Task: inverse folding
C-alpha cells in the first residue's frame, strides 16, 4: 500500500489539521509516514501546502515527485489546479468549490470549475456551506477529509479514532463537531 497526498489551501483553512488526522490514522494502521510542509505567509492568507506520504513499506523521501500524487485535497479550487502537475493520471482531486479570493487577478470561478470538471476523478463540494448548514462552521476542512476517505485508502473508523486522539484534549463538543463533519464528507463521496 502506498498513497501520496498533497494537501493545499490558504493559511488558516485547516490544512495542517487534516494532515495531523491522516497521519494519526496511518500510524494506527501501522503504516510508515513522511510529511513535508510549506507555510507561505499563512497568517496573511498565503499558500499552505503539505506533502504526506503513507506506505506499508519504508519511505525514502518526504517529497512527492511530479506526476505521482494519488490524491490532492484542496481547501480552495485554484490551489487544486496549482498542484495539478503533481497528480498521477489516475489520481483524485477532492476540493472545496468555494474560492478564497486573496489576489486581485483571481481567475473566474466558472473557468476553474470547468478545468477541474475535465479531470476523471474529482469531488468538488461547497464545504463552507455544508459546515454552516450542519452547525459545524469551524470543521469544513474535516468535511473535505471525509469526502477523501475512500481515495486515501484509510478505514473510516481509523479516521474517527484519529479525530478523537487529535481533538480529545479540546473537549467532547469539538470531537463531536469533527465527527459530524467527517460523516457529512463521507456521505458526499457517494
Result:
Amino acid at each position: 500500500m502506498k498513497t501520496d497526498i498533497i494537501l493545499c489551501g490558504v493559511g488558516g483553512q485547516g490544512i495542517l489539521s487534516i494532515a495531523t488526522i491522516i497521519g494519526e490514522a496511518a500510524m494506527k494502521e501501522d503504516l510508515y509516514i513522511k510529511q513535508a510542509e510549506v507555510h507561505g505567509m499563512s497568517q496573511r492568507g498565503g499558500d499552505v501546502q503539505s506533502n504526506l506520504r503513507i506506505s506499508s513499506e519504508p519511505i525514502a523521501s518526504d517529497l512527492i515527485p511530479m506526476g505521482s500524487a494519488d490524491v490532492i485535497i484542496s481547501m480552495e479550487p485554484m490551489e487544486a489546479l496549482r498542484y495539478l502537475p503533481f497528480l498521477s493520471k489516475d489520481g483524485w482531486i477532492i476540493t472545496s468549490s468555494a474560492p478564497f479570493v486573496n489576489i486581485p487577478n483571481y481567475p473566474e470561478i466558472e473557468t476553474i470549475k470547468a478545468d477541474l470538471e475535465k479531470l476523471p476523478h474529482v469531488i468538488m463540494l461547497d464545504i463552507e456551506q455544508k459546515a454552516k448548514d450542519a452547525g459545524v462552521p469551524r470543521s469544513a476542512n474535516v468535511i473535505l477529509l471525509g469526502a477523501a476517505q475512500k481515495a486515501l485508502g484509510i478505514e473510516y473508523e481509523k479516521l474517527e479514532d484519529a479525530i478523537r486522539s487529535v481533538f480529545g484534549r479540546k473537549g467532547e463538543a469539538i470531537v463531536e463537531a469533527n465527527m459530524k463533519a467527517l460523516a457529512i464528507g463521507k456521505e458526499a463521496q457517494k
Notes: Strands lie at 2-10, 32-39, 47-55, 69-74, 87-96, 122-125. Residues 68 and 88 are 5 Å apart (CA to CA).
